[in-house]
Amino acid sequence: MGKTIAEKILARKSGKDSIKPGEYIIAKPDKVMVIAERIGQLTGDIPSRWDDDIKLDRVFDPEKIVVIPEHIIPPDNSKVATEYKEARKGSKKLGIKNFFDIGRGGICHQVFVENGFAVPGELVVGSDSHTCTYGALNVAARGINYELPYILKFGEIWFRVPESIKINIKGSLQEGVYAKDIILHLTGKYGTDFALYKSIEFVGPTVEELSIPGRLTIANMGIETGAKFAIFPADEKTKEYLAKRGITDYNSAEADPDAHYEKEYNLDVTKIEPHVACPHDLSNSKPINEIEGIKIDQAFLGSCTNARYEDLEIAAQILKGEKIASNVRMIVTPASEKIYEKALENGLIKIFHDANAIITNSTCGACAGLHLGLLGDGEVCIGTQNRNFKGRMGGEGSEIYLGSPATVAASAIKGEITDPRKYL
Amino acid sequence: MGEKILKGRVFKVGDNISTDLLMPSFTMFGKVPQKEIKNYVFHENKPNFIEEVQKGDIILAGKNFGCGSSRPATKNLIALGLSCVVAESFSAIFFRNSIALGFPLFKVEDINNFVKEKELIKVFPQKGYIQAVKNDKKKKIEPYPEFLMKIVEAGGLMPFFREDKSIKDIS
């Protein structure tokens, strides 16, 4: 019987010819993405935040490990600064060369992808839930966390082979409607656990039309549907994106024609409107006309979901020559320092600045409620990130709405949730 | 050897409980002393929980418990002395973290109305059911695969790490 993409990759990486959904296997990841502070705790003479006394003195293969200081950049307190300091030393000691230091990297997932570490057909685990982002480039990638020290030492971990589901997408997106609106439409229609424990494959003519940044946005939010993997087939666009990063030799994973899918979803995006996820759950996602007019205090254009160059460009086109509403603060956090640089060279940063937005360095920052843009009590934010959980951005009784970069930019100008098509 | 039975009062929390609610980001990254982080569990959605929770209590949840961030929120549940979580489903990362920490999770279908808040239940991990103490009503637990049970029984992944032992040896 044929295999799905996930089955193919897991079979290869566990050295088995045939595997089936529900089976438990031990597989060897091709790469491990690590958020730096844990390396600091595991190697330095500092306490672990997780109260465990273990230390890491060797890794399975330093070439296969990528370490990125990222959640709070630059550190906003000495404890984190010390962890990064120890991570720098510890990575060197362990022989890890792929270390993207502060000011040279940015948000881990964008750094991983833009530096050519996400390679089709590979298996990747990373110490962040949005590791599934790499699925845009045909990678079976998933977040892990507490298992990290074990994985770094042994280069292996258990997997339950997931059932696969297929999402066929057809139709052309209207102007002002983007990849973000597709995934928000899906969470609104099917909820936040319709893909729980499963591997999603996104296929169809619309998927082929989507840019790599658009695919990254959708794959990034795979976890918000419960998915283990959110995978796209590798195609010419994948090839072109990787060639620019010097990656030409890979063995992508294609689904067999007779592969078995537990369920198939068919979506025609022709009539999809811009969508906004309302508090406090992505299943509460609605077409914009149902919620236009809600007043906002903050607009956030950032995160590993939607702060790539293409996203900044869309927002800048709307904000050019405009000012954001007088009662609104807008925060722009590019997904990486490379993206920041390109936005600077091409005048986007000037457009944001002139519109009275604040531009930060690349960091997780406001998205995870860590720094650079927390909310006050009862405040309302519309952002381009992936989560609107209660309390996520701080503030008692605050509310988070999620939309595309265009929706966020238009809403910032008007001071209330606004259909971006009015500004195109 | 007799089965280790878990017994405790339940706290009911509903569907889609995120790890942001179990371990808010403002408590992480050195902002709250390590020993106090546990005091913020359900700070935003069930403010009285921390006052009321006692050692051995059980969380009874709906679907997708532990969704969102990969942070090891299970650590807080262990620190509070909870005996387990019973839910209709768990997020995959939360599930993995809990196995790696040797903390038991039990999947039981349709349990929203099984008991009322703070009523006592018993969990029989090996016999594979939960039981309401008040009326002996039972519900089946979805069994763990033996391989994962062995990791939980070993105390999670850390003993393997410490002893330089691969999980292949038990698979």
In a few lines, what is going on in this structure?
The complex is a heterodimer of chains A (424) and B (171). Chain A folds into three domains: 5-160, Aconitase, domain 3 (2-Layer Sandwich), CATH 3.30.499.10; 164-254 and 261-268, Aconitase, Domain 2; 276-423, 2-Layer Sandwich (Aconitase, domain 3). In chain A, 28% of the residues lie in helices and 17% in strands.
Helix content of chain A: 25-40%
Q: How large a portion of the residues of chain A is in β-strands, by DSSP E? A: 15-25%
Helical residue percent band of chain B:
10-25%
Number of continuous helical runs of chain B? 6
Task: Count every beta strand of chain B, where a strand is a DSSP E run of 2 or more residues.
Answer: 7
Overall outline of chain B: globular
In DSSP terms (H or I, runs of 4 or more residues), the helix count of chain A works out at 13
Q: Structural class of the helices, strands and pairings of chain A?
A: alpha/beta
CATH architectural name of the largest domain in chain A: 2-Layer Sandwich
The ordered string of helix (H) and strand (E) elements of chain B is EHHEHEHEEEEHH
Most extensive chain interface and residues per partner? A-B, 51 and 46 residues
Largest sheet of chain B: 7 strands, mixed
CATH level 4 superfamily of chain B: Aconitase, domain 4
The averaged pLDDT of chain A comes out at 97
Uncertain residue ranges of chain B:
none
Class from helix and strand fractions of chain B = alpha/beta
Q: Supply the CATH superfamily name of the largest domain in chain A.
A: Aconitase, domain 3
Q: Which band does the percent of strand residues of chain B land in?
A: 15-25%
